[in-house]
Design goal:
Chain lengths: ~290, ~160
C-alpha cells in the first residue's frame, strides 16, 4: 500500500475543515471495506485518509425523530439488520443489510459508506429507494437533505459536494402500511456481489415501488401509482405492460464479469415477479 | 515519495496484553499483528476481504484484519487465534476441530475458529444453516466445510451438556 497521512477528527466541523483544506487529496474512511481494497490496488491514492469513526455526531445510532428513522453515518450493517424498528417498519432494508458481504464485512461496513461508494450493485440501495430515504449531509454551507434517488449518479459518483460529509440516512416512517421485500441473484450462495439486486414495496394505497441495481450505472427506482401491480385481483394481461415498463431503465453493461446483460435482464424479471408476489403477501399480513 | 513515513503511536490490548506500538498509517492491523507482534496465527491471503483467513476479533466483533488500518485499532481489544488456548489446554471449540478432522491444510482454520467463536458466543445452540452463514466469509480451499460445520455443532452440543 502506498503511504498517506492519517487524520482522526473528533468533531464534524474539524472533518469538514480538513476536507476543505485538502480537497480531492483527502479520502474519508468509515468502515474501510471498500476503501482499503482501493488503497491497496492503487485505484485510490489519497494524500490523507480521514477516519470518521471518532466523530461524536456520527457515532453508531438508530433513533426515531419527528416521524423519521435516523440512521447515523457510523452505523454498521450488523446493527441495521438486527434493529427492531428497522425490522418492523423497514424489513426489506434489514434483509438487504443482512446479505452484504460476510459477518466480518457487516461488522465493519456502514450504510452511509455503501451509499457514498455508489456501487450499482449496492444491496441496500434498492431498499433505500423504495423507502424514499434521504441522505443528510453537512458541509461548509450547512446541512442538506438529498433524496437518495437524487444522490446516485454513476459508479463511485454521487451528488455529494466538495467538503461535504454524509451524517445520516433518514427513512420517513411509513404513512401507510407497506409490504416489502429485498431479493437478489448471486453466482454462489453466501459471500458474493449481486448480478441483480431488487426491492419491491406495495403499500395500502395501492402504490408499488420497485427498485433494482447491478443492471446499469446506478440503481433505478420505478413507481406504479395506477394500483394495478399491487392489486392481487388484477388480471395478468393488465399487469404485464406496466410490469415491463418498470424495467425500462435497466441497461446492464456487457463488460461486467459477473453475468451477461441478457441473463441479468431475464433474472431481473424473475426477481421482480417473485418480489411483487411476496410484497403483496406481506402487505396482506401486515 | 522520498519523504520519511511518519509513524503514529497506538495502544491496544492483544490477547489480554497491553501493547504500545508505533505504526505507519498505511499498515493494516494484519501486518502489525504478524510483522510487529509476531502473531503469525492470523493468516494473510486474499487481501480483499473475501477469504477470511485474517479474521480476528476487534472489540468483540470479528473483522477481516486486512481491511482494518492498525491506527483504527488504537484503544481497541484484539483477540487472535493465539489468545484462544490457555495454560497449555485447547478450548473445547479447538478440540472439536481436531476431533472432527476439520483441519486439512489448516491455513483457513485460525479464521474459521474466530468466526465460530463469535457465532457460539452470540448463539450457543446454532442451527446448521446458522453455522453456514457464520462462516460464509471464511473460505476453505481444501473444501473441508462439512467437517468444519460438524466441529462447530459438536462444540455447541458439548457446551449444552
Amino acid at each position: 500500500m502506498h503511504t498517506f497521512a492519517y487524520a482522526r477528527p473528533t468533531t464534524l466541523a474539524e472533518a469538514v475543515a480538513i476536507l476543505d483544506e485538502h480537497g480531492p487529496g483527502a479520502r474519508l474512511l468509515a468502515g474501510g471495506t471498500d476503501l482499503l481494497i482501493r488503497l491497496r490496488d492503487g485505484t485510490a491514492r489519497p494524500v490523507l485518509v480521514v477516519d470518521l469513526k471518532r466523530i461524536a455526531e456520527l457515532r453508531p445510532a438508530i433513533r426515531e425523530e419527528d416521524g423519521r428513522l435516523v440512521i447515523s453515518a457510523g452505523t454498521v450493517m450488523t446493527d441495521i439488520a438486527a434493529d427492531d424498528t428497522v425490522r418492523r417498519f423497514f424489513g426489506a432494508l434489514a434483509e438487504a443489510a443482512s446479505v452484504v458481504g460476510s459477518v466480518q464485512i457487516r461488522n465493519r461496513a456502514t450504510l452511509a459508506g455503501n451509499v457514498c461508494n455508489a456501487s450499482p450493485a449496492a444491496d441496500t440501495a434498492p431498499a433505500l429507494l423504495v423507502y424514499d430515504a434521504v441522505v443528510v449531509t453537512e458541509g461548509l454551507s450547512g446541512i442538506r437533505r438529498i433524496r437518495v434517488d437524487d444522490f446516485f449518479v454513476r459508479p463511485g459518483v454521487t451528488t455529494l459536494g466538495r467538503a461535504e460529509i454524509v451524517v445520516a440516512i433518514e427513512l420517513p416512517m411509513p404513512a401507510r402500511k407497506m409490504g416489502a421485500v429485498h431479493v437478489r441473484r448471486t453466482r454462489r450462495r453466501g459471500h458474493d456481489l449481486a448480478s441483480a439486486t431488487l426491492c419491491c414495496g406495495v403499500d395500502a394505497g395501492g402504490v408499488t415501488r420497485l427498485a433494482y441495481g447491478s443492471v446499469g450505472p446506478r440503481p433505478v427506482l420505478a413507481v406504479d401509482e395506477s394500483g394495478v401491480l399491487g392489486d392481487p385481483a388484477a388480471p395478468d394481461a393488465a399487469k404485464a405492460p406496466i410490469f415491463e415498463r418498470m424495467f425500462a431503465d435497466a441497461s446492464p453493461s456487457p463488460r461486467s464479469m459477473r453475468a451477461s446483460p441478457d441473463y441479468r435482464l431475464a433474472m431481473l424479471r424473475v426477481l421482480g415477479t417473485r418480489a411483487l408476489r411476496t410484497a403483496i403477501d406481506r402487505l396482506a399480513q401486515a | 515519495m522520498s519523504e520519511m513515513v511518519r509513524t503514529i503511536p497506538i495502544e491496544l490490548t492483544v490477547n489480554g496484553r497491553r501493547r504500545a506500538l508505533e505504526v505507519a498509517a498505511h499498515h493494516t492491523l494484519l501486518e502489525v499483528l504478524r510483522d510487529d507482534l509476531e502473531l503469525t496465527g492470523t493468516k494473510e491471503c486474499c487481501l480483499v476481504g473475501e477469504c477470511g483467513a485474517c479474521t480476528v476479533s476487534l472489540d468483540g466483533r470479528i473483522v477481516d484484519s486486512c481491511l482494518v488500518l492498525a491506527v483504527e485499532a488504537d484503544g481497541a481489544a484484539v483477540l487472535t487465534v493465539e489468545g484462544l488456548a490457555g495454560g497449555g489446554r485447547l478450548t473445547p471449540l479447538q478440540q472439536a476441530f481436531l476431533d472432527k478432522g476439520a483441519a486439512q491444510c489448516g491455513f483457513c482454520i485460525p479464521g474459521q475458529l474466530m468466526s465460530a467463536l463469535a457465532l457460539l458466543q452470540a448463539t450457543p445452540a446454532p442451527t446448521r444453516e446458522a453455522v453456514e452463514e457464520a462462516i460464509a466469509g471464511n473460505l476453505c480451499r481444501c473444501g473441508g466445510y462439512e467437517q468444519i460445520i460438524d466441529a462447530i455443532l459438536a462444540a455447541a452440543e458439548a457446551d449444552e451438556r
